[in-house]
């Protein structure tokens, strides 16, 4: 929080972050009850107070909301069987809690979620990418063939297809 705020203003910021009510925050911060409504609204317009409130709220939000890294770390812990779940089970007399590691179904589910984030490792996505690349190369070859008026287009396409086949064999594709 900014050091240019007075003690009352800092108290106002703290109270406002909790309640979201400018009037009540002004009263709790020590401002006059008679002018609390106006003072609270004025405080919200002051750049230093506004900035302090935004900083506090941003700090709170970043702690509450998980980021992508945190989610991926969780997925990998589940995949490796490092996460443990507590499951209640009823017995004849009472309810007990047992711990269990992720099931195969859980691991498959998180594996799918992980693969969505790394599509190049997915065989289907890899094939789609290959097809798009090949289509782009064919289009470029056709455009070049049209530019070369004096040459036979069919010969150029045959040559281009031969080159594509050689490249695919070189990269291990069939």
UniProtKB/TrEMBL annotation:
Listed Pfam families: Terminase_2
Ligase is among the record's keywords: no
InterPro entries with a match to the protein in the record: SPP1-like_terminase, Terminase_Gp1_N_sf, Terminase_ssu
The entry's keywords: Coiled coil, Viral genome packaging, Viral release from host cell
Coiled coil region boundaries: 129-163
GO biological process: chromosome organization
Keyword Cytoplasm appears in the UniProt entry: no
Protein name, entry field: Phage terminase, small subunit
């Amino acid at each position: 929080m900014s050091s240019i705020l007075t003690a009352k203003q800092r108290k106002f910021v703290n109270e406002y972050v909790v309640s979201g009510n400018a009037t009540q925050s002004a009263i709790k911060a020590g401002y006059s009850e008679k002018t609390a409504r106006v003072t609270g609204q004025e405080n919200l317009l002051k750049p230093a107070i506004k900035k302090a409130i935004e900083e506090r709220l941003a700090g709170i939000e970043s702690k509450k909301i998980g980021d992508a890294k945190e989610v991926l770390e969780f997925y990998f812990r589940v995949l490796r069987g490092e996460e443990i779940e507590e499951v209640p089970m009823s017995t004849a007399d009472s309810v007990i809690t047992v711990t269990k590691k992720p099931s195969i179904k859980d691991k498959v589910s998180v594996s799918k979620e992980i693969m969505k984030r790394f599509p190049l490792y997915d065989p289907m996505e890899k094939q789609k990418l290959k097809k798009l690349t090949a289509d782009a190369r064919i289009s470029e070859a056709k455009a070049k063939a049209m530019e070369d008026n004096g040459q036979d287009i069919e010969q150029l396409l045959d040559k281009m297809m031969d080159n594509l086949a050689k490249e695919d064999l070189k990269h291990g594709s069939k």
